[in-house]
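Incident log, support desk, overnight shift.

02:14 A customer reports that sequence design results differ from what the structure should imply. Their input is reproduced verbatim below. On-call engineer (initials T.W.) acknowledged and began investigating.
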């Protein structure tokens, strides 16, 4: 049920502030997610100097 509350909060924020701020938040979350995914995938290719 926490997801429903979060979705309701996001929908309420979008109605009050317009779609511009919601789109900005979505884009920031996507960029951070891509950076973290790239870091997670590429860290396995690091050479280990044992």
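02:41 Re-run completed on a clean worker. Output:
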């Amino acid at each position: 049920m926490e997801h429903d509350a979060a979705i309701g909060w996001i929908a309420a924020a979008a109605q009050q502030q317009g779609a511009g701020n919601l789109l900005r938040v979505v884009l920031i979350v996507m960029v951070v997610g891509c950076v973290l995914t790239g870091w997670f995938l590429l860290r396995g290719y690091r050479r280990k100097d044992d």
